[in-house]
Amino acid sequence: MRWHTWRCAASWAGSAAGVLVLVLVGIWVAVSWRALAHGTGERAEMSWYDPITWATFVVLVVFLAVRALIGLAALERRLAVWGLAPSDKEVLRRRVERLSRTRAEVLEAVGDERRRIERDLHDGVQQRLVALGMLLGRSGPSAPPACPAARR
Questions:
Q1: Across 15-30, average pLDDT
Q2: More confident residue, 75 or 103
Q3: To pair with 144 at 20 to 30 A between CA atoms, which of 62, 73, 88, 128?
């Protein structure tokens, strides 16, 4: 809301600057017309410095118009930054939200990795024990050995 208020004020300032430039151009046209056509009741002669004066006035008016536009653009940018940028509270809220989201993602990734490691350990040990049992079953005699005392 505050940006719209200040934007409206800047718009009025821009309009005022535009009207000022138009008034200056109107004065210049009126003075030039009067000097050339109705100066003394009869057509006035141009002197050598009249074109220089007009050119200087044109350069001055163009310079003022350009400076006014540059100033209005800078004012518009400052108003946009001031009025549309998030407040400190909003920036902090967004940061906390982002950190919470990334923390949850990290915890989920760590949990997935832990479950994978547990599964690999469980499956690997279980397979080794079965293989060891099979190896022991094949390598041993099929009947238990007899006692040496029983052989006599």
A1: 75
A2: 103
A3: 128
Q: Which of 23, 48, 43, 21 is nearest to 33 (CA)?
A: 43
Residue-wise pLDDT for 42-81, tens only, equals 555 667 777 787 788 778 877 877 887 788 788 778 877 7
Kindly report whether the global pTM for this prediction surpasses the value 0.85.
no
Mention every residue, 6+ apart, whose C-beta is less than 8 A from residue 73.
none
Q: Which long-range contacts (CB under 8 A, 24 or more apart) does 73-76 make?
A: 75/10, 75/13, 76/7, 76/10
Answer for the pair 2, 79: CB distance below 8 angstroms, yes or no.
no
The answer to whether the CB of 50 falls within 8 A of the CB of 14 is no
Whole-number Å distance between alpha carbons of 45 and 36:
7
- DSSP assignment of 106-143 equals HHHHHHHHHHHHHHHHHHHHHHHHHHHHHHHHHHS-SS
pLDDT of residue 152: 54
Q: Nearest to residue 68, comparing CAs of 28, 20, 24?
A: 20
Q: How far is CA 82 from CA 6, 11, 77, 104, 150, in A?
A: 10, 16, 9, 34, 104
- Which position has the token pair 């200040």? 6
Residue closest to 75 by CA, chosen among 8, 21, 1: 8
